[in-house]
Amino acid sequence: MAKARRSEPAPAFNENESPLYRLFSRKDFSGRPVISEFQFAAGERLRVDYERAHFQPRITSSWDGERTGARNYGALSDNRIASLSDSAIDARRRVHNAFDAVGPELSGVLYYMCCLAGGLEQAERMLQLPQRSGKAVLAIALTRLARHYRLLKPAERSAASPDFAHWALADFRPRIMPPEPGAHQP
User: Fold this and answer.
1) Which stretch of DSSP H or E encloses residue 134?
2) What is the rounded distance in angstroms from the CA atom of residue 141 to the CA atom of residue 131?
3) How far apart are CA 55 and CA 81, in angstroms?
4) In whole angstroms, how large is the CA radius of gyration of the chain?
5) DSSP secondary structure letter of residue 112
6) Residues paired with 33 in a beta bridge
7) Considering the entire predicted model, what is its pTM?
8) Which helix H or strand E contains 101, and what residues bound it?
9) How many other CB atoms are found less than 10 A from the CB of residue 47?
10) Taking a C-beta distance cutoff of 8 angstroms, is the pair 143, 102 a contact?
11) Dihedral in degrees, nearest 10, Cα atoms 156, 158, 162, 167
């Protein structure tokens, strides 16, 4: 009879390496986290997909041995995508879809903060944002990313007109001004 495998402990999570975790654990002047739980979850999901996609080049030594065989052209070329697993290719697709959903204006700050684990000041400098605007831009980008991942439900539409969404509150009714005295009526 085969022995049951002991479950291996989960790797330790170093919260000091994640700028999103530092923002999530930091409180603003009113005592709320700088970024909300759903924003943190969306950013972490993007980071996990980015790491699974193997976008970063290898920075350690490879002990696989020399690959100079006649049939192994992938080792001699720069075509790394040919050696990727299906899960890495799926992760790349998810990362590209997430950046497309967020848009080019907001994807840069997500790339620096979530994927590269850079700081807010560095992202502001690299993206040429005004100083101290990084938190606001990051919050907007993370909210948009959370909508893409369906961590937030979409805004409700009016029951009276399901095909038309308006920007006002659900109980908003415009006020119709009476005509001015002496104005010509068509």
Assistant:
1) helix 134-148
2) 17
3) 10
4) 25
5) I
6) 27
7) 0.67
8) helix 86-102
9) 19
10) no
11) -80
- pLDDT, tens digit, for every residue of 72-100? 554 544 556 666 788 888 889 999 999 99
Number of C-beta neighbours around residue 105 at 10 A = 12
| Structural domain includes residue 21 | yes
Distance CA 43, CA 22 (A): 12
Residues 6+ apart with CB under 8 A from 105: none
In a domain, 38, yes or no: yes
Structure tokens that stand for 119 in this block: 């700081």
**137-152 b/e with 16+ CB inside 10 Å = b?**
bbbebbbbbbbbeebb
Residue 66 lies in a domain: no
98-137 per-position pLDDT tens digit: 999 999 999 999 999 999 888 888 888 989 988 888 889 9
In 3D space, the residue among 119, 151, 147, 148 whose CA is nearest the CA of residue 135 turns out to be 119
- Total domains in the fold of the chain: 1
